[in-house]
Amino acid sequence: MKWDWSSVGDFMPVFWDGVLVTLQALVLSVIVAFTLGLVWAMAQRSTLKAVSWPVTVVTEFIRNTPLLVQLFFLYYVLPEWGITFSALTTGVIGLGLHYSTYTAEVYRAGIDGVPVGQWEAATALNLPRSRTWLAVILPQAIRRVIPALGNYVVAMLKDSPLIATIGVLEMLGEARQFGSVTFQMVEPLVVVGIAFIVIAYPASLLLRALERRLVR
Amino acid sequence: MSADSTPTNPNAGGSKETANPTVDGSELIRFDKVTKRFGSNTVLDELDFKVDSGKHVTLIGPSGSGKTTILRLLMTLMKPDEGTIKVGGEYLTHEERGGKLVPAGDKHIREVRKNIGMVFQQFNLFPNMKVLRNITEAPVHVLGLSKDEADERARELLDLVGLGDRCDAYPTQLSGGQQQRVAIARALAMRPQVLLLDEVTSALDPELVAGVLDVLRDIAHSTDITMLCVTHEMNFARDISDQVLMFDSGRIIESGSPEKIFGDPDHERTREFLSAVL
Amino acid sequence: MSEITPGLWELVFKGLWITVQLTVFSAALGAVVALVIGLARTHRLWIVRFLSGAYFEIFRGTSALVFMFLVFFALPLGFGWQLVPMWAAVLAMGLTYGAYGSEIVRGAVAAVSPAQREAGIALSFTPAQSLRKVILPQAWPEMVPPLNNLLIELLKGTALVSILGVNDITFAGSLVRNATGESAPIYTVILVMYFVLAFVMTRGMRLLERQAKAGIGQAPPKRRKLSLRQTNDLAASGVSGGTGGAA
């Protein structure tokens, strides 16, 4: 086999388009995952069984089934129900929803880690429940879980090419399209593979540094 | 969250639904046949007792005798299994609805709880807030004070506890004794009628205990706040108390003036306990 | 629009069987890789530590799907032989999840107290004997719960191979969807099947954990109801997250 540098050169313009889409999808799905995860974590703590039970069951189910099939489900089933999103939106929802079940566990551990005395002090001061969560519990819980959440950002980055399967032209999608036109698959794939390492490795180094600073 | 419209009232915690908060020696706290169990262990056994407004009452007794449980029940950190508790004439954990006594709703508990403040053994300051905000958080968000009013009140209280210069510190930057004094200021900022003190010096290094007790003595002598105090500091109890209750196995076995209890207790168990701790 | 016919059901169950095989074979390869790389990362020679560490770091940064594509497209070109898609998939999955697993092995081995190593030396065990008779039996119970999480991630990861034409259960799902023109029933069925597989695996791993713990005289831990996994406490999140996490 011969490595073809000109093929790499031809791929680069669309590659950069793909990078942009990957980062866009990543940022949006991270926002979904971080927000929804917090909702799940708080709902699981609810004293109302009618709230905590279904949420626990649903998050367990989502967490233990493949993201790929979930993406297909969203992409093919939602339109049958009359809900139509763009491929990118579907991908963001799928990726974000899937990982929200992981971040929920992270938040849960963080919330459990806040000493019970903090809840008691809030009760003694008669703080409303919403204020207790917002001003007392969550600021303490989230600080502890930032490194763990960061790990999931990297994990989500690595899973983001899955949305290529529903037609989103992110990095892998662009590589496949390029390959199907030029019949040169290896060069674009190697470029994309390296791109993931180049983005993910410094990110995880950064996270480890952050972890040392935040977790005492 | 109901705003308090008269924050200048010295006992601003009082609301129209609660009894007259002025100090007239009337009954402020009443336990009626209160029973509390943990599993098979009965911590409080049909306990009856009352505290009059403005009084400083100290609960003493061996650990595990249920003293702290009384404070925690009053603070609604736990619920009694049987019996009722009244604060300022209002049921704390129950409310009357249609002539029947039913478990209280959140709103009712919140309203009655406004009259109670608590200082914890482990301080329980909010580590994510600076000292000043620890104190202003509840007055702003529960009593509805403006930020400026709350700040002013907090600064006064910090002066009172001798920490006027530490407004901008984070709790972790303070010594245990300083943290506990902030916690006292935080509780007082809500202008409660009753202050519950749960072994407030037990977690402190010995050299820091005196500073905290001095602050509390000051408050006991200069205000008319009702105090309910669990402590192992018998000298402190003798100094501030109007009444001392001796607890054993979930019952009050003896009560009286500090002179009586510390000087000439009736009960053999009290004598034993005191000789062990003094 | 039509029902899922018996013929289509047969397709689904064949796919299920392929998924099970993929999981088992990949897990077997992954276990070997995890053990070798994990132990190499605690080796006394720095070059061994460096190379095995580099292996782990590369896979940690690599997207499993992109790597799979590379194995499918580059290996035949580079080496001139075409792997059967199934085996290419097993190779890709085993190498990837083995890398994640090496972190679990390394962590558990490192957690065995140094006094135990010294005891091994005092008894004049060779390093290999010490590893086999002293270190690994103690590290093993610590590995089982995170390996359970990883195994479920691996099971979920096998779905990716359907994109490359391996006729696993997800692939069967696409075929059925095309045949019936309906997506909701078949994808619901498939998700439930994956969930049941994960559930069965968890039960198995719990038995294994109980046995492993009993083997060193410990009682099994209590778990949250409902939860398939060991709780991800913050410290453990590094090796249990997503596609192996990134800690």
UniProtKB/TrEMBL annotation, chain A:
InterPro entries reported in the protein's UniProt record? AA_ABC_transptr_permease_3TM, ArtM/GltK/GlnP/TcyL/YhdX-like, Ectoine_EhuD, MetI-like, MetI-like_sf
Transmembrane segments in this chain: where? 20-43, 81-99, 189-210
**Compartment(s):** Cell membrane
Keywords of the record, alphabetical order, are: Amino-acid transport, Cell membrane, Membrane, Transmembrane, Transmembrane helix, Transport
Q: Which residues form the ABC transmembrane type-1 domain?
A: 15-207
Where it mainly occurs, coarsely classed, is: membrane
Gene3D superfamilies in the cross-refs? MetI-like (1.10.3720.10)
Membrane association type? Multi-pass membrane protein
User: What is stated as this protein's family in its record?
Assistant: Belongs to the binding-protein-dependent transport system permease family.
Protein name per Swiss-Prot or TrEMBL: Ectoine/hydroxyectoine ABC transporter permease subunit EhuD
Identify the species of origin. Streptomyces cavernicola
TrEMBL record, chain B:
SMART domains, alphabetically? AAA (SM00382)
Q: Which residues are listed as membrane-spanning?
A: none
Task: Note the superkingdom of the native organism.
Answer: Bacteria
Question: Which keywords does this Swiss-Prot/TrEMBL entry list?
Answer: Amino-acid transport, ATP-binding, Cell membrane, Membrane, Nucleotide-binding, Transport
One example GO MF annotation: ATP binding
Classification via Pfam families: ABC_tran
Q: How does it sit in the membrane?
A: Peripheral membrane protein
Against InterPro entries, the record matches this protein to: AAA+_ATPase, ABC_ATPase_HisP-typ, ABC_transporter-like_ATP-bd, ABC_transporter-like_CS, Ectoine_EhuA, MetN_ABC_transporter-like, P-loop_NTPase
List each copy of the ABC transporter domain by range. 29-274
Q: Where is the composition biased (Polar residues)?
A: 1-23
Where are the residues of the annotated region Disordered?
Answer: 1-24
Q: Which cell locations does it reside in?
A: Cell membrane
rRNA-binding keyword on record: no
Sequence similarity: Belongs to the ABC transporter superfamily.
Supply the name of the protein. Answer: Ectoine/hydroxyectoine ABC transporter ATP-binding protein EhuA
Source organism (scientific name)? Streptomyces cavernicola
UniProtKB/TrEMBL annotation, chain C:
Q: Do you know which InterPro entries this protein is assigned to?
A: AA_ABC_transptr_permease_3TM (IPR010065), ArtM/GltK/GlnP/TcyL/YhdX-like (IPR043429), Ectoine_EhuC (IPR014342), MetI-like (IPR000515), MetI-like_sf (IPR035906)
Membrane topology note:
Multi-pass membrane protein
Q: Does the keyword Hydrolase apply?
A: no
In terms of superkingdom, the source organism counts as Bacteria
- Which intervals hold domain ABC transmembrane type-1? 16-205
The listed locations are:
Cell membrane
- The regions listed as transmembrane in this protein's record are 16-40, 61-84, 184-201
Please give one Pfam family short name.
Answer: BPD_transp_1
Provide the alphabetized UniProt keywords: Amino-acid transport, Cell membrane, Membrane, Transmembrane, Transmembrane helix, Transport
Primary place of residence? membrane
Tell whether Ribonucleoprotein is among the UniProt keywords: no
Please list which residues make up the signal peptide. Answer: none
Into which family does the record put it?
Answer: Belongs to the binding-protein-dependent transport system permease family.
Q: What is this protein called?
A: Ectoine/hydroxyectoine ABC transporter permease subunit EhuC
This chain's source organism reads: Streptomyces cavernicola
